[in-house]
């Protein structure tokens, strides 16, 4: 007696059988084959043939071919633009850039952040680590409306030097009337390297911080 494992039942395919999936699209070659087949099988003596319809089909074929050529041309231009953008991004390595956002990117005991005030205000900046703990307090006093640069040497409340990395901030800006003053912030970073993705996205790396090229507001030496 022989025993064996019982597996799932399968239906054998006949030799040479080819399975094709249905498609809702057709390329210019398929369109031309259909048009040629129509010309071979139609009866020129039949009164049902519409010459206008034939002209429309030929026009559709020409439009399809032109559209595909245009798509190929646009793909080539897109590839050239991607290479150009990558070359421009690579030239930013070693430069300092202004990036939309808030916080300090501490590198070698140096970091700075831009602060834009809508009106003069008394400003206090609180620095926090990744866990949300307060590590430093930076009272700025009264700052004028417009752009100000807030610097931090990376020392904590006890004067100890903190390791390089990204630090969060919370900012309070109060006017003479005691009301909050609106403000915007941006980071100042030195670009260490640039990364590219297959989708064309460009990423800038500064220390442990990573940000998109789209967030860059300005470039300085």
Please provide the count of β strands. Answer: 12
- Percent of residues in helices: 10-25%
- Helices and strands, in order, run as HHEEEEEEEEEEEE
Largest pleated sheet: 5 strands, antiparallel
- The main sheet orders its strands as 6-3-8-1-12
Estimated structural class? alpha+beta
Radius of gyration: 33 Å
Distance between the termini: 86 Å
| Second CATH tier, the architecture of the domain at 96-220 | Sandwich
Mean pLDDT: 76
Key terms:
221 residues, alpha+beta, Immunoglobulin-like, 5-stranded antiparallel sheet, 4-stranded antiparallel sheet, FlgD/Vpr_Ig-like
Could you give a short description of this structure?
The protein has 221 residues and is α+β, with helices and mostly antiparallel strands.
Structural summary, described in words:
The protein is of the alpha+beta class. It is built from two helices and twelve strands, in the order ααββββββββββββ. Helix 1 (28-41) packs antiparallel against helix 2 (51-90). The longest helix is centred in the first third of the chain and has 40 residues, at 51-90. The protein is elongated and about 90 Å long. Residues 1-18 have low confidence and may be disordered. Residues 87-204 form the FlgD Tudor-like domain. Residues 109-176 form the FlgD/Vpr Ig-like domain. Keywords: Bacterial flagellum biogenesis. This is Basal-body rod modification protein FlgD.
């Amino acid at each position: 007696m022989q025993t064996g494992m019982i597996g799932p039942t399968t239906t054998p395919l006949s030799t040479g059988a080819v399975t094709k999936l249905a498609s809702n699209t057709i390329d210019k070659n398929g369109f031309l084959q259909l048009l040629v087949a129509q010309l071979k099988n139609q009866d020129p003596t039949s009164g049902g043939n519409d010459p206008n319809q034939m002209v429309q089909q030929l026009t559709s074929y020409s439009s399809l071919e032109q559209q595909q050529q245009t798509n190929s041309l646009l793909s080539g231009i897109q590839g050239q633009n991607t290479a150009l953008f990558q070359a421009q991004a690579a030239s930013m390595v070693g430069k300092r850039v202004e990036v939309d956002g808030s916080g300090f990117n501490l590198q070698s005991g140096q970091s700075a952040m831009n602060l834009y005030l809508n009106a003069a205000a008394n400003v206090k900046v609180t620095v926090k680590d990744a866990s949300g703990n307060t590590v430093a307090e930076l009272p700025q006093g009264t700052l004028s409306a417009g752009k100000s640069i807030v610097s931090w040497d990376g020392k904590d409340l006890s004067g100890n030097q903190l390791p390089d990395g990204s630090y969060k901030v919370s900012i309070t800006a109060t006017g003479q009337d005691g009301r909050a003053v609106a403000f915007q912030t941006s980071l100042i970073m030195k670009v260490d390297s640039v990364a590219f993705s297959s989708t064309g996205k460009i990423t800038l790396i500064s220390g442990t911080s990573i940000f998109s090229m789209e967030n860059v507001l300005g470039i300085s030496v």
